[in-house]
Design brief:
Number of helices: 10
Oligomer: single chain
CATH class: Mainly Beta
CATH topology: Jelly Rolls
Order of helices and strands: HHHHHHEHEHHEEEEHEEEEEE
Shape: globular
CATH architecture: Sandwich
Helix content: 25-40%
Largest sheet: 6 strands, antiparallel
Distance between the termini: 24 Å
Structural class: alpha+beta
Length: about 325
């Protein structure tokens, strides 16, 4: 029944998505995946049921007791005596330093062309067979890795990537979720922290695989270097419309308006990621990013073009994981 409810909500976009009680029912149906929270709630001093709604308000009066090392003021200086960092080749060391200062790094030619070709063919086949499908946005295929050993082993859980992410967060990595796209998202600038949130803050990280070349015309990913250093925006920082029993029906739109104000206030400059097939962009929990408009090639300005890609989201172990905008705990699989 739990799986059926999740499939229904993947397609559904109506009023029930705003009712907190519906998510509580879903939590109860997925009880095994929330059991890890019992010890975590106790560890971090959260006194509530693991099935109840949860948001940043629950941690408002708590001190940030555990700051990821990459977010500490001395992060760059600490690398000098870090044996694991010294073991990376010089080019990767430079990328790690860039991640600390700018909030992202790029791994060029990381996925073999043969793997990207095979995954694109497999996505098409799974869509035809009905084993994969787009959610209510019409753009996102959730958790393809569940039906694709190729996506799971060669992309989502690729050992070299997991090693890098483990180093960046300084904790064991838990693969959480994947999103596959055939078209660019065209999503407005946002931070993952509003959607995949942790307590303590900062213990989520993302990797984006280009499964074909990106051009200025097919809706490339856009990001704002250095924006990860700004304060995390939560539902407490804008008029979300949330209440005791409901999630604000316009919360996402108002959040996007708030982010637009932050970008203007700090005069942040966007950068397009014109990736080549096989490139990977790894970004910080709080890096502002989104999708550029799909404008089509000059010869065919009205014809959409594909931008095949795969996004992987990872939580760190030993932290509380939840979804701030939806006020619900994350259903984390065993590491």
């Amino acid at each position: 029944m739990a799986i059926s409810l999740q499939k229904i909500f993947a397609k559904y976009s109506g009023f029930l998505r705003t009712v907190k009680a519906v998510y509580v029912v879903n939590n109860l149906l997925n009880a095994p995946r929330l059991q890890r929270n019992k010890s975590l709630y106790k560890k971090w001093g959260l006194k509530k049921s693991i099935f109840s709604p949860i948001s940043s308000r629950d941690f408002k009066r708590m001190e940030q007791q555990d700051i990821p090392w990459i977010d500490r003021p001395n992060a760059l200086e600490s690398l000098a005596n870090n044996a694991e960092y010294q073991a990376f080749p010089p080019d990767i060391q430079a990328k790690i330093r860039q991640f600390i200062t700018e909030g992202y790094l790029v791994l060029e030619n990381f996925a073999p062309v043969a793997d990207t070709d095979a995954l694109n063919a497999e996505v098409d086949q799974l869509l035809v067979e009905g084993k994969a499908g787009f959610n209510f946005t019409g753009r996102k295929i959730f958790n393809l890795f569940e039906n694709s050993p190729l996506a799971n082993e060669h992309f989502f859980r690729r050992p070299e990537l997991i090693q890098m992410l483990h180093f960046l967060l300084g904790k064991k990595i838990i693969p959480f979720q994947t999103l596959n796209f055939t078209l660019g998202s065209e999503q407005k600038p946002h931070s993952d922290a509003i959607h995949m949130t942790t307590q303590p803050q900062g213990y989520m990280i993302a990797a984006w695989y280009a499964l074909e070349d990106c051009t200025p015309y097919n809706g490339p990913l856009v990001y704002y270097p250095g924006s990860h250093r700004l304060p995390v925006i939560s539902t407490e920082d804008y008029d979300s419309g949330d209440s005791t029993f409901l999630i604000g029906s316009h919360s996402n739109e108002r959040y996007e308006q708030k982010i637009a104000e932050v970008i203007a206030e700090h005069q942040l400059q966007p950068r397009q990621f014109l990736a080549k097939r096989g490139d990977v962009l790894v970004w910080h929990y709080n890096l502002l990013h989104g999708g550029s408009p799909i404008i089509g090639a000059p010869a065919h300005p009205d014809q959409p073009v594909t931008r095949k890609s795969m996004v992987c989201h990872y939580f760190a172990d030993d932290v509380i994981c939840y979804h701030e905008m939806l006020h619900r705990p994350a259903l984390v699989r065993a590491a």
